[in-house]
Amino acid sequence: MSTYQPRDEAEAASVVSAAAARRERLRLVGGNTRAGLGRPAQDEATLSAAALRGITLYEPAELVIAARAGTPLAEIEERLAAGRQMLPFEPMDHRALLGSAGEPTIGGVAAGNVSGPRRIAGGAARDSLIGVRFINGRGEAVKSGGRVMKNVTGLDLVKLMAGSWGTLGFLTEVTFKVLPIPERTATLVLAGLDDARAVAAMSLALGSPFEITGAAHLPAGIDGGEARTLLRIEGFSASVEYRLGELRRLLRAFGGPALVEGDEAAALWAGVRDVRPFAAAAADGAVWRLSTAPSRGPAVAAAIAAAREARWFFDWGGGLIWVLTPASGDAGAEAVRAALRPGGGHATLVRAPDAVRAAVPVFEPLAEPLMRVSAGLKAAHDPAGLFNPGRMYAGL
Q: Which residues form the FAD-binding PCMH-type domain (predicted)?
């Protein structure tokens, strides 16, 4: 199988134009760390952004950074950290969960809308993405958005590309808004709560004026210990100290929380972000990512457990549920989606063997009107169906 590694945007456009003429289906990759997410590849060659590297703009005073799509995420984060800044959405690293190697790229983060625990406060990756450059399926270079926040008229290609998983175009450059690194970060840990009480505590904290930037619950045994409910606060030291005191008073009915800071707290949140409890346990099990109303989280988890062996933990105050099930049969697809149906939500099969991912819808099945819209967008941007064919939905 051929692998193309264009060194610039013009060369990328030439590669895609030639592939379109041959009707050669292309697998789009950056660092190749998320290749196992989505339906199995149906391609004939690989188009890699690995050679498209380098930060093209960094304006700390304007809170904006731009980089070529193949730039390692670690390079972006290191440059931002030197300026006491960060990506607001805390992107997940899938390598441990998927058992992959390589380096995550900033283009991959944009293409997958890859976000983490801070999403409840800072939004998703797409909310910080303000500009993209990409090659469409005709081999044309397209620019959308810019380097400042502004109103958008017409089709917002920036938001459309985020979460399209490389099915609409080959990203060559992305631009993100950034934020200052908080002066202090502190985490309150409530011990021993069951799922319902944990969600009640997280909802109370999130509904308060004390600006929670992370709210997660690890049930008993999920990482070998007792149940823990995590609430993160960030900002100026004096503000954090005040809010810690107010939150302790607000949550006194849930027990006396412990205070965790520094490397220990960072490790806790990295574990939640990267789903490490399921990376280490049952590496051949299926892992689902469920999004629902936070108040529904405990009921959804209980319904899945009633139908199938399962383990889970909560992020986003209960609105994001990570579920581990055996990979046999449909990997729990029927149980997971039946549990979500009464209250709404969607589920993505993040990890499973190839045979399961080929047989079970990996992304949430779309209603017929939405599938027509998706097919229309695919035809408009990639008329020959070159890019990551079938990765999200069969036939697209």
A: 1-181
Tokens of 301: 């988890």
Kindly provide the residue ranges of all beta strands, DSSP E only, lying in the chain, ordered along the sequence. Answer: 2-4, 26-29, 45-48, 55-59, 64-68, 85-86, 129-135, 141-145, 170-177, 179-180, 184-191, 212-218, 228-235, 258-261, 286-291, 311-315, 320-325, 346-351
Q: How far apart are CA 165 and CA 250, in angstroms?
A: 42
- Same structural domain for residues 6 and 85? yes
Residues of the domain holding 310: 276-359
What integer pLDDT is reported at residue 224 of this predicted model? 79
pLDDT at 201 > cutoff 70: yes
Cα 313 to Cα 275: distance, rounded to the nearest angstrom: 9
Number of domains in the chain: 3
- What's the mean pLDDT in 48-62? 97
Instruction: Give me 353's structure tokens.
Output: 């063997």
CATH number of domain containing 247: 3.30.70.2190
- Strand segments (E) across 25-169: 26-29, 45-48, 55-59, 64-68, 85-86, 129-135, 141-145
pLDDT digits (tens, 9 = 90+) for 108-159: 999 999 999 999 999 999 999 999 999 999 999 999 987 655 544 446 899 9
Farthest-apart Cα atoms in the chain, separation: 67
In a domain, 386, yes or no: no
Residue 245 and residue 198 share a domain: yes
Q: Are residues 11 and 152 in the same domain?
A: yes
Alpha-carbon span 95 to 32, nearest angstrom: 10
The confidence score (pLDDT) of residue 301 equals: 97
245 within a domain of the structure (yes/no): yes
Backbone CA torsion sign across 142, 144, 148, 153: positive
Please tell me whether residue 200 adopts helix, strand or coil conformation.
helix
Q: Verify that 174 and 135 share a domain, yes or no.
A: yes
CATH number of 108's domain: 3.30.465.10
pTM of the model: 0.95
Residues forming a β-bridge with 248: none
Task: State residue 323 phi and psi, 5-degree precision.
Answer: -125, 130
